[in-house]
């Protein structure tokens, strides 16, 4: 990654701070809002957006063809009836979780380093959840009937089955998306007011004016605002844990060997944090290089994120180990065969690649030199993204392809349309991020001013 | 109540957060009640300086959460036991453990919506226009400047005296806010 080679100006002295450089309330405001208001969009934005937008077109093409022909265009069949759609769903929703973790849990823990990264991490959450939400709908054989999941008084007199994990999942994911949107929007209100007051053009003034709802920065408003924001964070923190636990119930409530396991909820939540932080790094590193934000997103931020990666990666590794142990300890021949098949079966290479990406190579993060090296971090983040996708592939596909009765074993080969939908969803994610960067402040401006005030207060 | 009707109030600008907090305290001690301070970020002690400490937000969110929890559980109970009872393997219709996940999620949803709408409603937002926006310098309240406004409707408001008080508290400049 050539962007990432661009060495930050921050020196050793700056490492101890989360905000380097001489900023005042005014200049920090100008620097962040200039990305949106100056109208000088870097060429790399156009190139990146063009690529992402072409992938969105690919996604639309794949979805249209799916609606015309049905799920038969994918590689799924019995026994593997849950293919890429479910793999991608779990992968995307997991990525989303780091955003909420950064914005809510780090807020509750009063971690100052969250301030520079929470806004775009929350945006990442929203867009990842949007991508995730697509897949279960596409995966329905008859997507036009997805609204059967909604409990409403239908003339048929039929109601949804609330004992099913799929209903829990529908509620969890849609509520997660709603609450993330609310949390993100509340965080944006004061910054919209800043943009409204700074914008030159009539259109921008009116748009940001409407979105800011007439925010004036009144002390009474701030007090209520902060109280509400803190409690929202308190609500979002258990929500994020519950969402991925419920996603894991989709698997663990069934009796398929490799799915029917009590370790799934914590193991899925740790995996979500792991993949989400990897994605935050994947986004943060090019972003700060292109927009020269090295003094706002410092090397120390990257270092902290790398430490979270290392810790959550170890929890995930413990999960892998426990799956093997429990298969042996259960004494169930189906569980034992499942592990042997996972390690040495036809998809064995996926498992070993996943172990390399998620467990072995990330151990490099123990070394300070690796955590401080931007190119290394970027490479590791990409690898973990791949590893976490493979993990879901191994869980979903490899468990299904050989279950209890050997006569019903089969293989799964993804089709072109499977790949097109996966890469198309990445394009959708990237395109939404590009639009976000161009139209909204990607770093919380008022919280940077607050951080500045606090750090000035300390130095006095 | 001697203020001319054309004036909404007086707006004083201060150099930094500490001065604003101090001035707000002095103005409040002088007996003014219809005052408000404006800053580009939350400042500790500013609302307290106006003796504004308690907000109903936590209560609003608590009520929202409780209503959500009850609504979520009752919906599931009603669907599974009354409206559409389905016998699954002879298990009880009121199989409450299976209803916990959705109850929890709906609790959070209602709490969050109550929090956001409650915060906006108590703040009187959305309010697209406000007399303060008539002062050109006020557009910097969202960037790097700090303001204190005394409304003309305050009982103690006497234009000349109030203006002098604001100058005494260290205001850099005092603006008239047209109604």
Which tags fit this structure?
heterodimer, A: mainly alpha, disordered N terminus, B: 179 residues, alpha+beta, Alpha-Beta Plaits, 2 domains, 5 helices, 4 strands, 43% helix, rod-shaped
Summary, kept brief:
Chain A is an all-alpha fold and 460 residues long.
The chain-level structural class of chain B is: alpha+beta
Q: Radius of gyration of chain B, rounded?
A: 25 Å
| Residue runs with pLDDT of under 50 for 5 or more positions of chain B | none
Mean pLDDT of chain A: 88
Lateral strand order in the biggest sheet of chain B = 2-3-1-4
Write the H/E string of chain B, N to C.
EHEHHHEHE
- Kindly, what is the distance between the CA atoms of the first and last residues of chain B, rounded to a whole number of angstroms? 15 Å
Percent of residues in β-strands of chain B = 5-15%
Tell me the structural class of chain A: mainly alpha
Summed up, the helix count of chain A is 16
Mean pLDDT of chain B: 86
CATH architecture of chain A: Up-down Bundle
| CATH-defined topology of chain A | Formate dehydrogenase/DMSO reductase fold
Describe the structure.
The complex is a heterodimer of chains A (460) and B (179). Chain A has 460 residues and is mainly alpha-helical. Chain A has one domain: Formate dehydrogenase/DMSO reductase domain (Formate dehydrogenase/DMSO reductase fold). In chain A, 71% of the residues lie in helices and 0% in strands. Chain A has 16 helices and no strands. In chain B, 43% of the residues lie in helices and 13% in strands. The mean pLDDT of chain B is 86. Chain B has helices spanning 17-29, 46-49, 57-83, 100-122, 159-168, and strands spanning 7-14, 35-38, 146-151, 173-178. Chain B is of the alpha+beta class. Chain B is built from 5 helices and 4 strands, in the order βαβαααβαβ. Chain B folds into 2 domains: 7-53 and 131-178, Alpha-Beta Plaits (2-Layer Sandwich), CATH 3.30.70; 57-122, no CATH class. Chains A and B meet through helix 2, helix 6, helix 8 and helix 16 of A and strand 2, helix 2, helix 3 and helix 4 of B.
């Amino acid at each position: 990654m050539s962007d990432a080679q661009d060495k930050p100006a921050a020196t050793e002295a700056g490492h101890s701070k989360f905000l380097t450089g001489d900023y005042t309330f005014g200049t920090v405001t100008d620097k962040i809002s200039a990305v949106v208001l100056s109208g000088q969009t870097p060429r790399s934005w156009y190139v990146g957006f063009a690529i992402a937008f072409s992938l969105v077109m690919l996604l639309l093409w794949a979805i249209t063809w799916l609606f015309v022909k049905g799920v038969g265009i994918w590689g799924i069949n019995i026994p593997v009836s849950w293919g890429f759609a479910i793999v991608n769903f779990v992968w995307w929703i997991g990525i989303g979780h780091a955003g909420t973790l950064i914005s809510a849990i780090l807020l509750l823990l009063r971690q100052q380093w969250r301030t520079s990264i929470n806004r775009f991490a929350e945006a990442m959450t929203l867009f990842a959840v949007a991508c995730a939400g697509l897949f279960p709908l596409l995966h329905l054989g008859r997507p036009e009937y997805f609204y059967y999941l909604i409990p409403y008084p239908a003339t048929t007199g039929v109601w949804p089955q609330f004992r099913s994990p799929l209903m829990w999942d529908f509620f969890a994911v849609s509520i997660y998306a709603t609450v993330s949107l609310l949390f993100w929007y509340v965080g944006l209100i004061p910054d919209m007011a800043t943009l409204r007051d700074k914008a030159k053009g009539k259109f921008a003034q009116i748009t940001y004016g409407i979105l800011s709802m007439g925010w004036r920065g009144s002390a009474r408003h701030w007090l209520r605002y902060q109280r509400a924001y803190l409690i929202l964070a308190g609500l979002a923190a258990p929500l994020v844990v519950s969402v991925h636990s419920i996603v894991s119930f989709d698997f663990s409530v069934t009796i398929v060997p490799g799915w029917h396991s009590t370790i799934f909820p914590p193991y899925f939540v740790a995996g979500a944090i792991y993949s989400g932080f990897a994605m935050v790094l994947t986004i943060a590193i090019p972003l700060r290089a292109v927009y020269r934000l090295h003094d706002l997103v410092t090397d120390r931020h990257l270092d902290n994120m790398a430490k979270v990666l290392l810790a959550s990666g170890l929890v995930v590794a413990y999960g892998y180990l426990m799956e093997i142990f429990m298969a042996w300890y259960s004494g169930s021949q189906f569980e034992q065969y499942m592990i042997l098949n996972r390690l040495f079966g036809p998809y064995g290479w996926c498992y070993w690649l996943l172990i390399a990406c998620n467990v072995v190579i990330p151990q490099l993060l123990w070394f300070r030199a690796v955590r401080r090296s931007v190119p290394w971090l970027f490479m590791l983040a990409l690898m973990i993204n791949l590893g976490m996708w493979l993990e879901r592939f191994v869980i979903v596909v490899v468990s299904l392809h050989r279950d209890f009765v050997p006569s019903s074993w089969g293989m799964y080969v993804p089709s072109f349309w499977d790949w097109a939908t996966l890469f198309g969803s990445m394009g959708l994610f990237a395109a939404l991020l590009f639009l976000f960067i161009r139209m909204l402040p990607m770093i919380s401006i008022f919280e940077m001013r607050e951080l500045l005030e606090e750090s000035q207060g300390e130095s006095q | 109540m001697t203020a001319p009707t054309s004036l909404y109030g007086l707006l004083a600008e201060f150099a930094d957060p500490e001065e604003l907090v101090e001035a707000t305290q002095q103005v409040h001690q002088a007996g003014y009640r219809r005052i408000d301070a404006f800053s580009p970020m939350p400042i500790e002690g500013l609302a307290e300086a106006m003796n504004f400490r308690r907000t109903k937000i936590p209560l609003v969110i608590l009520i929202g959460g409780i209503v959500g929890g009850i609504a979520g559980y009752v919906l599931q109970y009603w669907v599974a036991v009354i409206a559409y009872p389905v016998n699954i393997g002879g298990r009880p219709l009121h199989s409450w453990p299976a209803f916990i996940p959705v109850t929890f999620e709906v609790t959070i949803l209602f709490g969050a919506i109550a929090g956001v709408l409650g915060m906006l409603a108590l703040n009187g937002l959305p309010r697209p226009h406000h007399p303060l926006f008539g002062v050109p310098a006020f557009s910097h309240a969202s960037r790097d400047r700090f303001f204190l406004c005394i409304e003309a409707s305050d009982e103690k408001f006497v234009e000349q005296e109030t203006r002098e008080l604001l100058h005494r508290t260290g205001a850099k400049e005092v603006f008239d806010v047209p109604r």
